[in-house]
Design brief:
- The chain is an alpha/beta fold.
- It folds into two domains: 127 residues, serine acetyltransferase, domain 1 (Orthogonal Bundle), CATH 1.10.3130.10; 96 residues, Hexapeptide repeat proteins (UDP N-Acetylglucosamine Acyltransferase, domain 1, 3 Solenoid).
- It has seven helices and 14 strands.
- A five-stranded parallel sheet has the order 1-4-7-10-13. A five-stranded parallel sheet has the order 3-6-9-12-14. A four-stranded parallel sheet has the order 2-5-8-11, with no helix packed on it.
- The radius of gyration is 21 Å and the shape is globular.
- The N and C termini lie far apart (59 Å).
């Protein structure tokens, strides 16, 4: 039995094609951050025009004022990213130079777009920060919500599979490896305005595939969280948390 034809105006239209525009906006903004001064000014003119077009399509008011405020934050963002890059170079034995970090590390790329989108998020710019983070999520495999709060000298190794939720708080000199989740222990719409994700204090290292859940959870300073650990209670400072599993090794029968 054939389905009745739907009227042209039955569905609400969404500007899904703006995904292409956000890709261009995010790329060019990222590139401009590391350009020389003259080239940067040219790039930022293009990026500003693109932002204003996005804002118009999305019904965002005061877009010129928002952009002007955001633009003043770019030097501070660059300073933070230079510290992040140093953390990569100093903590990854595979890194041969700072240039390699800027040009080839997906983790650094993910952090850079996070820091840009986070400033827009703090200005209460709707939708655009999330679109930026999801575009970069697709590129790097790293899902950092623009609402998360992340301190100085942040290092994420390999990047793939990392999830950092909206209300996560990460202090300074934190190292996170692939597959780590900083998530919520409950998923309820009524919790949207409360802290749902953990706090990671200074100088914490979290190894691959560890999962840390809950808004009232904190991992104390100078702690190490081992691979595959599942945490739903706070960890005191200077702790070592490991997952114990004995591997059984036997001779294979031919």
């Amino acid at each position: 039995m054939s389905q009745p034809e739907k009227k042209d105006n039955e569905f609400k239209a969404y500007n899904v094609y703006l995904k292409d525009t956000i890709e261009v906006f995010t790329k060019r903004l990222f590139y401009a951050l590391f350009d020389g001064f003259e080239q940067q000014q040219k790039e930022l003119l293009f990026v500003e025009q693109t932002f204003l077009k996005l804002a118009l399509k999305l019904g965002i008011e005061n877009s010129e004022s928002l952009w002007a405020t955001f633009k003043t934050k770019l030097p501070e963002i660059r300073e933070k990213l230079d510290l992040d890059a140093l953390a990569f170079e100093q903590n990854d034995p595979a890194s041969k130079s700072l240039e390699e970090v800027y040009l080839a590390y997906p983790g650094f790329h993910a952090i850079a777009i996070y820091r840009l989108s986070h400033e827009l998020y703090k200005l209460n710019v709707p939708i655009i920060p999330r679109m930026m983070s999801e575009y970069t999520h697709g590129l790097t495999g790293t899902d950092i919500h623009p609402g998360a709060t992340i301190g100085a000298s942040f290092f994420i190794d390999h990047a793939t599979g990392i999830v950092i939720g909206e209300t996560s708080v990460i202090k300074d000199h934190v190292k996170i490896y692939q597959g780590v989740t900083l998530g919520g222990i409950q998923i309820k719409k009524s919790m949207s305005n409360i802290k749902r994700h953990p706090t990671i204090e200074n100088n914490v290292t979290i190894y691959a595939n560890a999962t840390i859940l809950g808004g009232d959870i904190s991992v104390g300073a100078n702690s190490i969280v081992g691979a595959n650990v599942w945490i739903t209670k706070s960890i005191p400072e200077n702790s070592l948390v490991t997952y114990q599993l004995d591997n059984k090794i036997s001779t294979r029968k031919s």
